[in-house]
Amino acid sequence: MPLQEVYMGLGSAVYALAKSDGQLQPAETETVKRILTQHTHGEIAVSAYALKEAYNVPVEEAYAFAMRRFQANGKELNESLKKEFVAILEEVAQSHDDVSRKEEEFIRRFRRDLRRL
Predict the structure, then answer these.
(1) Which of 6, 42, 65, 90 is most buried by its number of CB atoms within 10 A?
(2) Residue 82: its pLDDT value, please?
(3) Could you give the CA distance from residue 87 to residue 58 in angstroms, rounded to a whole number?
(4) Of the candidates 59, 76, 65, 54, which has an alpha carbon nearest to the alpha carbon of residue 2?
(5) Buried b (16+ CB within 10 A) or exposed e, 80-110
(6) By C-alpha distance, which of 94, 95, 84 is closest to 110?
């Protein structure tokens, strides 16, 4: 189950990114579903994203949840997976017109926090 937990964290982090500039963009949500479902445990990440969206969870709360999942399951979160998760966030951010300053800051913070785990 640890890998599923990591993907729950990913879904939560992607939700926090998508919402970081104030609102969820329909293009971002579609991209999230398309990208995540290509991964082995992507459906779990999509479910986590959808739950956060349904309950309109604040960005910081969703981000903190993601980091707790990653920290608790650190053995599963290898360097390759960390890079993949950053790439997923970048792809989601670029899915609509342009990447906002808040999204850029969010991705920098995410990358930095993952390095510390």
Answers:
(1) 6
(2) 96
(3) 23
(4) 76
(5) ebbeebbebbbebbebbeebeeebeebbeeb
(6) 84
Average pLDDT over residues 31-37: 90
Q: Cβ contacts of residue 99 below 8 Å, gap of 6+?
A: 93
Structure tokens at 90: 């970048």
- Rounded to whole angstroms, how far apart are CA atoms 56 and 15? 10
Pick the closest to residue 25 from 113, 114, 102 (CA basis).
102
pLDDT for res 37: 93
Cβ–Cβ < 8 Å for 63, 16: yes
Report residue 46 as tokens.
């999509």
- Cα–Cα distance between 70 and 77 in angstroms, integer? 7
Q: Which of 28-32, 101-105, 106-110 has the lowest mean pLDDT?
A: 28-32
**CB of 86 closer than 8 Å to CB of 12:** no
